[in-house]
C-alpha cells in the first residue's frame, strides 16, 4: 500500500540536492543565479528566507531521464556511466526495493569517487507511486526520456486499470516529456505490448518511432538506450535466460498544436 507516501506540492518543493549532492546548488550561487534555468521560487507570496531554503534543495541540473517502476535498478546502473552528464531518476513503489537501490547507489558512489568512467552521482532513486502526481515531481517538458521496462502485466481484465499505461497516464507522460522526447517500452507479455502500442498510438501527443531508428547495431543515443533496456534490466536478463520474447516499442512526444 502507498498510504505512507508523501508527495511534493510542486517540483520546486522537492529536495533534489539530497538526491544528487554533487549537483547541489549552493546558497551563494542562488543569489546570483540568473542562467541556471532552475526555478527555485514558485509562488509570489514566498518570503526571501523561503527562497533561500528552497534553493539549498535545488540542483544545477534537472532530471531528464525517468525510469518508471525501476525495480532493482539495473537500467539506472547501466545508463549512469553511458550518460554521465544527465541526471537520471528511478521511481519505485516497493520500499525494500527502493532501499536496496538507494544503498547500491551510495556504495557505487564511494567505490567510484575517483573514477574517470562514471561516479554514479547522476543517478538516484525515489519511492513513489508513479500513477499518482507525476507532475508534482517534474515540470512541464522537463524530461527527454521515460522508460517503462517490463511493467507489471496485470493479466486479468478487471486489473487492467492498474496498468501504468492508459489514456490518462499517457497524458501525464506527455506533460512531463518535451516535444521530441521518447517513451521507451519493453515487455515479454505480448498482450501488454499490444495494449501499450494501442494506447500510445491513439494518444494525440505521441507517434510511434520506426524500428529503423532504434534496432540493430550502430551509434546514436536511441539505439544505445534500447540496447541497454534489452540487456541490463533485471527482467530483461530473466527473459533472456528463459529464451523468452522481448517486445520493444518507442513513442515520440509530438509538438503541441498551435492555439487556434
Ligand atoms: N523495470 C524493472 C525491470 O525491468 O527489471 C522492474 C520490472 S518489475 C516487473 C515492475 C516494477 O514496477 C516492480 O518493481 C514494481 O514494484 C514497480 N511498480 C509497479 N507499480 C508501480 C507504481 N505505480 N509506481 C512505481 N512503481 C511501480
From TrEMBL:
Entry EC number(s): 2.1.1.33
Similarity comment: family membership: Belongs to the class I-like SAM-binding methyltransferase superfamily. TrmB family.
Name assigned to this protein: tRNA (guanine-N(7)-)-methyltransferase
Chief site of localization: nucleus
Signal peptide: none
Active-site positions on this chain: 152
KW Transferase (keyword) present: yes
Binding of S-adenosyl-L-methionine, residues: 69, 92-93, 129-130, 149, 233-235
Gene Ontology cellular-component annotations: nucleus; tRNA (m7G46) methyltransferase complex
The protein's role, per its UniProt record: Catalyzes the formation of N(7)-methylguanine at position 46 (m7G46) in tRNA.
Reactions this protein catalyses: guanosine(46) in tRNA + S-adenosyl-L-methionine = N(7)-methylguanosine(46) in tRNA + S-adenosyl-L-homocysteine
Name of the gene this protein is made from: TRM8
Species the sequence originates in: Periconia digitata
Subcellular location(s) of the protein: Nucleus
